[in-house]
Write a structure and sequence with these properties.
Blueprint (H helix, E strand, L loop, with lengths): L6 H13 L5 H9 L2 H4 L5 H9 L3 H17 L8 H7 L5 H17 L7 H20 L1 H8 L5 H12 L3 H14 L4 H11 L8 H9 L1 E2 L2 E2 L5 H26 L14 H31 L1
Length: 296
C-alpha cells in the first residue's frame, strides 16, 4: 500500500487531473490509492471529486474504476481501453476480471483478430460470470463445466432450467445427468416435462430413454432436441401400428348376404369385392389357397 499524499502532492495531482481530464487515468489512480483527499481535508474520495470537479465527477469515477481494473489485469502497466474496463467492471472479483481478460485474448486469437475488441471482452465476461453462477448453484454441473463436458453458458442454462422444475422432477433429471451425462439444456426441460406426467399417462419415450441410455439411437450425452423429436415420432408411429393391429385383430365378424353367380365368375368377384373390400378379398383368396393345398 503506497504512502498517503502530502497536501502539496494532492493539490498538484488534482491540477494535473483537471488539465488532462480525458487521459488522466494514471493520475487518478495515484490520487485514489494514496488517499489524496485525506490531505485536502475530505472524508472520502467521492466528496473530494464532487467538490472539485462538479459536473465532471462521473468522468472521474470512470477514470478511477478504469485505473483500478487496469492495475489489476495489467500489472505491467499496459493501457487498457476504457470500453474494455467498463465491460470488466461487471465482474466484482479481481480474479474474475483477470481470467476474463485472458479469455478475451484467447477468443481474439481463435478468431485471428488483429486486436482484442470490446466484443471479445464482453463474451469473456459472460463466460466467467456463467462459471461463477454454476459453481454457486450446482456442484454437479460445475464439475461438468470444469471438465469441459459443457460450456459455461450451456451449464448456466442447464442450472436455470433445472431450477424451474418441481423438486422431485429436478432430482430425477439430476440423476439422468449424473448417470448418462446429459449435456443439452433443452433436454433438461423436455425430460422434466415427460417425467412430470399424471399416473396412467407415463411417457413411453422416457421409458426407452431410461432403459437404453439413448435417444433415437444417440447416447444421451450427445443427444439434442432433434433426437428427441425423432424418438417421439418413432414412438407415435409404433403406437399407431399397435392400435391398427389391435383393431384388425378384434374387428367384429359381421355376416353379409351377397349374391353369387354360377357361371359368371366376374360378377361373383365384383360382388365379393364390394362386400369384403380389397383387404377382406385378399384374406379370402389366401384362405382358399391354403384350403386347396390341404385338401389337394
Amino acid at each position: 500500500m503506497p504512502d498517503d499524499m502530502t497536501r502539496s502532492e494532492a493539490e498538484a495531482s488534482l491540477l494535473r487531473i483537471e488539465k488532462h481530464l480525458v487521459d488522466a487515468r494514471d493520475e487518478v489512480y495515484k490520487f485514489y490509492t494514496r488517499r489524496g483527499w485525506v490531505a485536502l481535508g475530505f472524508h472520502s474520495f467521492g466528496a473530494c471529486a464532487q467538490s472539485r470537479f462538479g459536473r465532471s465527477v462521473s468522468q472521474i469515477y470512470r477514470l478511477k474504476d478504469a485505473a483500478l481494473i487496469q492495475a489489476n489485469v495489467s500489472p505491467t502497466g499496459e493501457t487498457i481501453p476504457e470500453r474494455h474496463t467498463r465491460a470488466l467492471k461487471k465482474l466484482i472479483e479481481p480474479a474474475q476480471q483477470i481470467r476474463a481478460y485472458e479469455i478475451a485474448h484467447r477468443i481474439a486469437q481463435a478468431e485471428q483478430a488483429e486486436k482484442v475488441t470490446v466484443t471479445h471482452v464482453e463474451k469473456a465476461v459472460q463466460v466467467v460470470a456463467a462459471e461463477a453462477y454454476v459453481e454457486h448453484h450446482n456442484s454437479l454441473i460445475a464439475h461438468m463445466v470444469a471438465s469441459s463436458d459443457v460450456t459455461p453458458l450451456a451449464g448456466k442454462e442447464m442450472v436455470e432450467r433445472l431450477e424451474r422444475l418441481k423438486p422431485s422432477v429436478q432430482s430425477y433429471v439430476m440423476d439422468v445427468i449424473a448417470k448418462h451425462g446429459l449435456t443439452s439444456p433443452e433436454l433438461v426441460t423436455e425430460i422434466g416435462q415427460m417425467k412430470d406426467r399424471k399416473p396412467g399417462q407415463e411417457s413411453k419415450t422416457l421409458a426407452v430413454i431410461e432403459a437404453t441410455g439413448h435417444i433415437a439411437g444417440t447416447p444421451i450425452k450427445k443427444a439434442t432436441l432433434t433426437d428427441l423429436k425423432r424418438a417421439r415420432q418413432e414412438a407415435q408411429a409404433e403406437h399407431l401400428s399397435e392400435v391398427l393391429e389391435t383393431e384388425r385383430r378384434t374387428k367384429a365378424i359381421v355376416p353379409i348376404v351377397i349374391t353369387v353367380y354360377r357361371g359368371d365368375a366376374a360378377r361373383t368377384f365384383e360382388a365379393l369385392r364390394a362386400a369384403l373390400l380389397d383387404e377382406g378379398l385378399g384374406q379370402l383368396f389366401t384362405h382358399m389357397q391354403q384350403e386347396m393345398v390341404i385338401h389337394g
